Amino acid sequence: ALRAVHIFQKKQFVIPERWTTAFTLVYVLVYAVDYFFISRDFVSATVHLVLFGMLVKVFSVHRDRDLLYLGVLAFLMVLAASVLTVNTIFLGGFAVFLLVAIATFTSFEMRRAASAAGSIQSSSAEPSRQRPGIARLNRALSRTALALTATILLGATVLFFLLPRISGGYLGSFTRGSDPVSGFRDNIQLGGIGRIQQSTQVVMHLQINGDHSAFDGKLRGTVLSRFDGKSWADTPRYMNILSSRVGRYDISTETLAADPYLERVSGSRISQMMTYRILMEPTLSTVLFLAKGTLEFEGNFRQIAYDSAQSYINLDGSRPTNAYWGVTNITPPDPAALRATGADYPEPIAVRYLQLPELDRRIPELARSVTSKASTPYDKAQAVENYLQQNYGYTLELPAVTPADPLANFLFERRQGHCEYFASAMAVMLRTLGIPTRVATGFRGGEYNDLTGSYIIRGRDAHAWVEVFFPNQGWVSFDPTAYAPAQEPSLVGRLRLYADAMNEFWHEWVVNYDFAHQRTLTASLTTQSVEGGVSVRAWLAHIYQKLLQNARGAQRSFAQSPQRQSRWAVGVIICLLLLVLSPRLYAFWKIHTLVQNPQSAPEAA
């Protein structure tokens, strides 16, 4: 900005070359400090380095090659933007850069050629004559730059979609994960998900096929079982590995082999299946967010790991977790069957999922009081769920000071909080009653975009809920969180849906464009071209038949009254001749008028 002001004011401020050398040597040390202690990221530290180089070079232009160095540094910044920015803003920024770069290098070459020919004159020599020429030159340069930019963008678009796709993600390893997804790790502090929920950043898009009225809208990422009073954790994790050449996994049998106490899906329950697809925003997160009851899924990765709680991660470092689809059984559990299960829990389940730290004595007393009228574990779980939903409020405001016992503070003092407080309270209260529980974390709900038919899931949709174990039935989800008030739709919200639709298309067909997308696009274009050819051929056949009918009608009409048709034909021929000869007749009439009256146009005479 300072350099632009200097140019506008026709001032020159140039740093001496010995200073630039000193600045460069000093910044070598600054770069090391930035990389190891400040940014701790290669791309960020390198971007800072390039920015510093541009700043020094802008104020130290001594010769033409310095201008070329500035152009190269500007291109490096665009390259860095391609790594750090994956939304549609990059396309607009790249188009502007391309336009300015073309104009810059064109004018630079013109200046160099003119300087070599010795034809550069002072702008003050003949200002009245030079200004119109300079204005015309500027307009011509602008039109040329715009035309070249449009041509390059059009050609690049065609090449982008046509070039064979073998692999991708050359620069993906330098990208940084988004906070809402990277927040799901092997442990969750009470209040941690509340911080994620304050983000409006888009995390993923969920597309659902078919009837999903029984789907609760939850996508589970991690499941945690060990509670220490302030946080949930689970170790060891992801000890089982599956590989696949095509990226398709049937997890209905492999995960059961890892833990014999997982949910059994009997033949009578498989009655309502749902297919869904998840399009993740570009991120380094390896967590796979799946709907509970998923039987199989497929994605662009070749190796996954999972644990006994049916949590999955992507181990394929060469292929980021961009998009995947799954098939799940969303048939709801039978309450009668759950009530009849009893409380005979297997020893491994009881040892792992009944663990408790030292608790405030009021917590087990509250659990017994709330469930005093319930006779079965299922009724007790429902009683605790209803009690928390009806007697506690939802808020994203975090305590100014973290209490020593956050769970007791939530239940008996603050009496409001967000999802992990509700889930932790229910899980711990049921454990005090001898009912195995665990806490699941992931996302719930989302904003439906009717333009794309997908749900927009943001950081604010992060959620935690409870899974309760029932013998011979497996794990069943309960959600004790009081619902937050719904937001009213607005014009701004509608405009955001249009922007999100454009951004989703960008991620689907540009960021995640691979061989599968290329094959789909080729098949679609082939089908459309064939259908278009058939339509054009049918239209031409229809026109031909219509012309043939008209010709036959004219033939019949001529046979019935030849004299009348002859008069019509002669009239048409005369009109056509007049139309063809009208320019010559008009010119002849003007010449004749001029000869008869020469004083009407003396300059023509």
Mean pLDDT: 82
Low-confidence stretches: 122-129, 263-268
Distance between the termini: 64 Å
Supply Rg.
37 Å
Q: What can you tell me about this protein's structure?
A:
It is a single chain. By secondary structure, the chain is an alpha+beta fold. Helix content is 51%, strand content 16%. The chain contains 18 helices and 20 strands. The chain has helices at 2-8, 17-38, 42-58, 64-84, 89-117, 127-162, 179-182, 192-196, 251-258, 335-339, 347-353, 362-370, 377-391, 406-414, 419-432, 491-511, 515-560, 562-596; strands spanning 187-189, 202-209, 218-224, 226-227, 231-233, 240-243, 248-250, 273-280, 287-288, 294-299, 303-306, 312-314, 323-329, 393-394, 416-417, 437-444, 447-449, 454-458, 462-470, 474-478. The strands form five sheets. The protein has a seven-stranded antiparallel sheet with strand order 7-10-13-8-2-18-17. The chain has a four-stranded antiparallel sheet with strand order 3-16-19-20. A four-stranded antiparallel sheet has the order 6-11-12-9, with no helix packed on it.
